[in-house]
């Protein structure tokens, strides 16, 4: 509700104060008359009208003015007047109920305005404007006669029933605005809550009054020495608002005598009945068949065992079955009769009858007669109503009937107890020997009575059923000296075939039955008798299970009202038992008391539930008022959404409440939520939940456009589409209620409440509450938009100031430094921030491209968009069509590249950088077009303002000055750099020449040594085979000689022993084999030296990379072996399938030698420093990667920090001690791999994780 629409600015806060005052009145007072009177006065002051009255409907459609407030007696009072039903006809009352219509009448214009809150056909909540039509002429005449020129009427409801009307009358013409209707409607809603609370309070007071009445009657019939039934009757009649009554007692049911009072009427057979009367009585005609009305068959036929507990007759002349008795009442004013039978088990003891006279219409008047002519019409209506009440009696209420039944039960129990007492006295008079037994029985009866009243007192003190059941069971068992007493409750859904013992008292010697569940078809058959009040008494039991050990039992039904609730079970387990009548009666009485306790507990539970429902409705109204107040305190939408979702979630006790905002295509996203712990979040940091609902998109908001609130109790039972259910399952929802949020007439979004844990039934008050919250949020959004417009104007002024500041800072930056990159970077950052753009970039044309190509040389861009820095751009459209215009100073401002009519080629270039809108200004260096200053909006289209374009042009002009200054500086710096570079190149060339010469000399030396060693080794290797052959021949000859001449000469024998011929024969072949292996090893070493030097392969040729690696490893073999200060270094080879690679083999071997030497140095140093615990290992991997051969050489040494790794390829850089290295190995290796072979040479290393060198050589030379 927008309270700002009220005419008087001074009253802008009056509605809020009005609602607060009325809420305080409801909170402070429990009297509905006081609340209604105060509310009428407050509403009259708010509307500034002459009269506000509150009209309450009677059940027959008539009604009465029960509260009124009049200003300065401008109009006469209607307070207390009753009006007939046709003053407000049934059709009007039906419209109030179905549409919740608010009615406005303008007498002068004869127009009737109606504002509907519900659709009369569908019953759904709507918000309808005031619609006018012609008013009935009779209505105009009625109001004119009353002096009323304008009126307003709003219906008041209690639990969806039309309770009454709030009516405002004004003696002058007056129009009522929609905001005023909404305020008064909120007042009416609060009145509904107050009325519900007052009805609940009245119910509690009626219950208390019934208890007082019962307590007042009980002492008169609670004495065993005599029953004051006359006094009890005289107490009962006024408590039931009766004019008279009678008590009919059938004494044939007993053997005692009743006291006779002087009020007893003459009867034909005094020995049969006793009659007690109070007030006017019917008189039977002389020709009547019977003298007593209770003797007629209508009484006997109407009241039967198990039948009605009471017969309430509002008008005895309208009951056909009473026609024979109507003459007896002709001489009286009696119209209504309430008859209650006095049943005890199956025995009818008599009747309690209460009479009620017809309404005395002559006393029906309202206030002092007012001669004001404007009172004539209301008085005529009142007279019509009074005439309609002639011959009518007030209806008997349910509370009165219930009280009468309760009092009848007290009378029945007292009479029955008195009968037993009288029977006991009669027996004692004849039998002296039975005095003690009779006294014992009397004492038992007294104890039972005391126990009974003790239990009743406990029931009144406490409604805790468990405590009542446990205490009562123990009292009954002790009183009857039974072995076990249990209370059995039927399962309500079992049709009396199963149940459970919920309380017991049992002697320790017998098994307990607490919690024992019984399921028996026979139990259901017996329930028919129990429902009629039959008591089962067994002196010997055999059909029950042996585990219960029941020898005798009494089973008494327990009733909750008229419904069979359970059983009171009294067990004798030790032996069979003859149950006495007084014991059975005592058990029945205790069962009756327990039934009352069960009924009262249920009543309390229902009352508590109603109180909770009313409290929740009140809390929701308070929550709405508090949220409205907080919305007015803050116009920050995020704060408003946060407060609203939290309050609605708490008030509805939902799992999630969220605000959903539509976008232009009727899709949308969640912008705020309050969610209970444990459920997935839809809104939050880095959380963005977008929902594309095809139904909402196709229908442009669907039902919500028409201000409908939609709710579903269970999404799986509501016939929703599968895609709709899938969307809801993403939110973990099982039930939801959604209300529209409208800003003016435009559907802005939705307010949604979700129940995730279980399905849920949404109450009408909850739907109304969330609908009201949706309306309030719409108002808050509208107010926020108005505030945003004001703030925008302030922002524009601040932006202009900010742009001047940025321009001055750019000029200052240009003066401070001639570093173009720094100028561009600072300028881009400041301009982007000032214009709130997504990207600001400086684009430079390629001078030789004819303005077709270029690159972004500097930018400042938001993180969520891709960078355009260094991105090459080719756009032939620009060079052909746009460049000449930018030469002339053209500025391009495009709000949306897709609607600006750009060439396809130009638009495609812009789209690749996510550009949606752009502002482009030329950057001129002197008279040349150097580049462009580009302002990009990527997230959405943007209309560029004139002030923004001028600002960017000024920035571009200053950047042009900076370009000219930077060009002069760059020219000077370039010349200095050329001189410096020439010096560095000369130094590098000298270093490489020296190293190349060293390696060439080393290669020649190695090749010469290999050649000199190779000749004698080849000679030795070639003759070893002949030596082996000759030696074998000589040894065979010696063996043959020893066979033929076993006894040689002594001299030969001595020499043979001296030289150990046998040992020579065995060792000589082994010696020759060793020599052969040695020569082969020397040949391999020579071959490796030749392969390493490759002097014969100085040109680029296809070679086997693995041979070069093996040659290098062979040369380095001595360094790999263990030493005193370092362990053996393990070589792991993981060679892949490599083709022949075109390369400079000798230079590549030099690279392998440098890398492997460094790896060995690193492992040895790590071992010395004890930085590794594993075996020192060098791993060599080879494989093909794309069109190159890759050699990866890695170690598990200590690695190197980033600072060292960044300089390892620099000339003369080394980390080794002085004299251990030159710092040229890796630098030269880098030149060989990258410059000579166009390959890749890189290093990967981390401290503690070793080092890897990646060598990548193209398989085919470029």
Description:
Keywords: Coiled coil, Kinase, Phosphoprotein, Transferase, Two-component regulatory system. InterPro entries: GAF, GAF-like_dom_sf, HATPase_C_sf, HATPase_dom, His_kinase_dom, HisK_dim/P_dom, HisK_dim/P_sf, Phyto_chromo_attachment. There is one protein chain. The chain is of the alpha+beta class and 1262 residues long. It folds into 7 domains: 203 residues, GAF domain (Beta-Lactamase); 138 residues, Beta-Lactamase (2-Layer Sandwich), CATH 3.30.450.40; 177 residues, 2-Layer Sandwich (Beta-Lactamase), CATH 3.30.450.40; 132 residues, GAF domain (Beta-Lactamase); 161 residues, GAF domain (Beta-Lactamase), CATH 3.30.450; 98 residues; 163 residues, Heat Shock Protein 90 (2-Layer Sandwich), CATH 3.30.565.10. The chain is 46% helix and 20% strand. The strands form 8 sheets. It has an 8-stranded antiparallel β-sheet. Strands 16-15-14-19-18-17 form a 6-stranded antiparallel β-sheet, with helices on both faces. α14 packs antiparallel against α15 and α15 packs antiparallel against α18.
């Amino acid at each position: 509700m927008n309270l700002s629409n009220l005419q008087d600015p001074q009253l802008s806060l009056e509605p809020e104060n009005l609602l607060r005052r009325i809420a305080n009145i409801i909170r402070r007072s429990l009297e509905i008359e006081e609340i209604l009177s105060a509310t009428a006065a407050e509403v009259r002051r708010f509307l500034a009208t002459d009269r506000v009255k509150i009209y309450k409907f009677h059940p027959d459609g008539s009604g009465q003015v029960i509260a009124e407030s009049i200003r300065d007696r401008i109009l006469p009072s209607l307070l207390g007047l009753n009006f007939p039903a046709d003053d407000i006809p049934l059709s009007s009352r039906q419209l109030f109920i179905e549409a919740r219509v608010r009615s406005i009448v303008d007498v002068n214009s004869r127009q009737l305005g109606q504002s509907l809150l519900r659709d009369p056909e569908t019953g759904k909540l709507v918000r309808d404007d005031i619609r006018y039509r012609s008013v009935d002429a009779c209505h105009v005449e009625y109001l004119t006669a009353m002096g009323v020129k304008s009126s307003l009427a709003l219906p008041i409801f209690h639990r969806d029933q039309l309770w009454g009307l709030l009516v405002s009358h004004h003696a002058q013409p007056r129009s009522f605005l929609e905001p005023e209707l909404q305020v008064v409607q909120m007042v009416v809603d609060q009145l509904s809550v107050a009325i519900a609370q007052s009805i609940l309070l009245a119910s509690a007071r009626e219950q208390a009054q019934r208890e007082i009445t019962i307590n007042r009657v009980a002492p008169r019939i609670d004495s065993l020495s005599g029953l004051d039934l006359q006094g009890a009757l005289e107490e009962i009649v006024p408590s039931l608002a009766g004019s008279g009554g009678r008590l009919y007692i059938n004494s044939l049911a007993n053997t005692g005598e009743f006291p006779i009072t002087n009020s007893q009427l003459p009867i034909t057979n005094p020995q049969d009945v006793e009659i007690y009367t109070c007030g006017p009585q019917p008189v039977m005609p002389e020709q009547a068949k019977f003298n007593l009305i209770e003797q007629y068959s209508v009484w006997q036929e109407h009241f039967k065992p198990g039948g009605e507990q009471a017969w309430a007759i509002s008008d005895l002349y309208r009951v056909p079955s009473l026609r024979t008795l109507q003459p007896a009442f002709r001489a009286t004013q009696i119209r209504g009769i309430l008859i209650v039978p006095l049943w005890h088990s199956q025995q009818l003891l008599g009747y309690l009858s209460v009479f009620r006279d017809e309404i005395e219409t002559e006393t029906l008047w309202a206030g002092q007669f007012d001669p004001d002519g404007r009172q004539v019409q209301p008085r005529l209506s009142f007279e019509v109503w009074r005439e309609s009440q002639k011959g009518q009696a007030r209806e008997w209420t349910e509370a009165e009937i219930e009280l009468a039944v309760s009092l009848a039960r007290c009378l029945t129990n007292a009479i029955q107890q008195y009968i037993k007492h009288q029977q006991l006295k009669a027996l004692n008079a004849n039998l002296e020997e039975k005095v003690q037994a009779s006294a014992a029985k009397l004492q038992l009866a007294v104890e039972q009575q005391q126990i009974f009243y003790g239990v009743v007192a406990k029931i009144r003190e406490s409604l805790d059923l468990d405590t009542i059941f446990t205490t009562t069971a123990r009292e009954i068992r002790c009183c009857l000296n039974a072995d076990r007493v249990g209370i059995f409750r039927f399962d309500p859904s079992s049709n009396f075939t199963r149940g459970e013992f919920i309380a017991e008292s049992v002697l320790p010697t017998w098994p307990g039955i607490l919690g024992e569940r019984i399921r028996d078809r026979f139990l259901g058959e017996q329930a028919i008798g129990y429902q009629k009040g039959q008591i089962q008494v067994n002196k010997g039991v055999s059909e029950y299970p042996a585990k219960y050990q029941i020898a005798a039992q009494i089973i008494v039904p327990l009733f909750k009202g008229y419904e069979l609730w359970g059983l009171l079970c009294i067990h004798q387990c030790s032996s069979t038992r003859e149950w006495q009548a007084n014991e059975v009666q005592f058990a029945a009485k205790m069962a009756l008391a327990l039934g009352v306790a069960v009924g009262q507990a249920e009543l309390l539970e229902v009352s508590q539930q109603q109180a909770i429902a009313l409290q929740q409705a009140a809390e929701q109204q308070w929550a709405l008022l508090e949220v409205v107040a907080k919305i007015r305190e803050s116009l920050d939408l995020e704060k408003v959404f946060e407060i609203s979702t939290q309050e609605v979630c708490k008030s509805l006790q939902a799992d999630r409440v969220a605000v959903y905002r539509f976008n232009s295509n009727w899709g949308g996203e969640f912008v705020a939520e309050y969610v209970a712990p444990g459920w997935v979040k839809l809104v939050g940091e880095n959380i963005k939940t977008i929902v594309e609902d095809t139904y909402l998109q196709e229908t442009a908001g669907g039902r919500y456009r028409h201000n409908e609130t939609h709710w579903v109790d269970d999404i799986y039972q509501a016939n929703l589409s599968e895609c709709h259910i899938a969307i809801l399952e993403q939110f973990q929802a099982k039930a939801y209620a959604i209300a529209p949020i409208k800003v003016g007439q435009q559907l802005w979004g939705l307010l949604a409440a979700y129940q995730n844990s279980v399905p849920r039934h949404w109450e009408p008050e909850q739907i109304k509450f969330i609908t009201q919250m949706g309306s309030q949020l719409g108002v808050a959004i509208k107010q926020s938009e108005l505030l945003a417009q004001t703030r925008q104007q302030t922002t524009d002024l601040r932006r202009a100031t900010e742009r001047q500041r940025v321009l001055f800072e750019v000029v200052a930056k240009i003066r401070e430094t001639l570093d173009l990159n720094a100028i561009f970077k600072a300028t881009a950052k400041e301009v982007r921030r000032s214009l709130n753009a997504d990207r600001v970039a400086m684009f430079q044309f390629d001078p030789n491209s004819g303005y077709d190509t270029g690159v972004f040389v500097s930018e400042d861009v938001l993180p969520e968009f891709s960078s355009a820095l260094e991105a090459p751009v080719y756009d032939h459209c620009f060079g052909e069509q746009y460049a000449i215009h930018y030469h002339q100073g053209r500025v391009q401002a495009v709000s949306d590249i897709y609607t600006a009519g750009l060439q396809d080629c130009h638009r495609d270039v812009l789209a690749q950088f996510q550009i949606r809108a752009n502002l482009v200004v030329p950057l001129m260096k002197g008279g040349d077009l150097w580049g462009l200053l580009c302002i990009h909006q990527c997230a959405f289209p943007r209309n560029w303002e004139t002030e923004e374009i001028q600002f960017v042009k000024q920035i571009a002009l200053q950047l042009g000055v900076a370009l000219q200054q930077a060009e002069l500086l760059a020219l000077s710096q370039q010349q200095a750099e050329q001189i410096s570079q020439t010096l560095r190149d000369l130094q590098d060339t000298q270093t490489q020449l020296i190293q190349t010469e060293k390696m060439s000399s080393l290669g020649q030396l190695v090749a010469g040594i290999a050649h000199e060693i190779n000749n004698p080794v080849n000679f030795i290797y070639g003759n070893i085979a002949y030596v082996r052959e000759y030696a074998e021949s000589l040894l065979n000859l010696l063996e043959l000689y020893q066979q033929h001449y076993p006894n040689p000469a002594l001299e030969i024998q001595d020499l043979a022993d001296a030289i150990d011929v046998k040992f020579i024969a065995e060792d000589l072949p082994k010696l020759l084999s060793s020599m052969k292996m040695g020569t082969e090893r020397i040949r391999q070493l020579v071959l490796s030296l030749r392969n390493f030097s490759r002097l014969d392969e100085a040109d680029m040729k296809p070679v086997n990379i693995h041979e070069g690696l093996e040659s290098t490893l062979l040369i380095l073999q001595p360094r790999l072996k263990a030493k005193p200060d370092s362990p053996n270094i393990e070589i792991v080879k993981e060679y892949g399938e490599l083709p022949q690679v075109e390369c400079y083999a000798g230079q590549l071997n030099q690279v392998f030698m440098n890398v492997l030497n460094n790896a060995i140095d690193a492992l040895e140093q790590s071992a010395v420093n004890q930085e590794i615990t594993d075996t020192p290992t060098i791993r060599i991997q080879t494989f093909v990667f794309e069109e190159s051969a890759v050699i990866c050489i890695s170690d598990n040494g200590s690695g190197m920090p980033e600072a060292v790794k960044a300089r390892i390829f620099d000339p003369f850089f080394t980390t080794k001690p002085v004299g251990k290295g030159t710092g040229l190995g890796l630098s030269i290796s880098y030149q060989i791999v990258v410059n000579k072979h166009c390959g890749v040479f890189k290093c990967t290393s981390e401290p503690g994780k070793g080092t890897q060198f990646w060598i990548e050589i193209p398989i085919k030379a470029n």
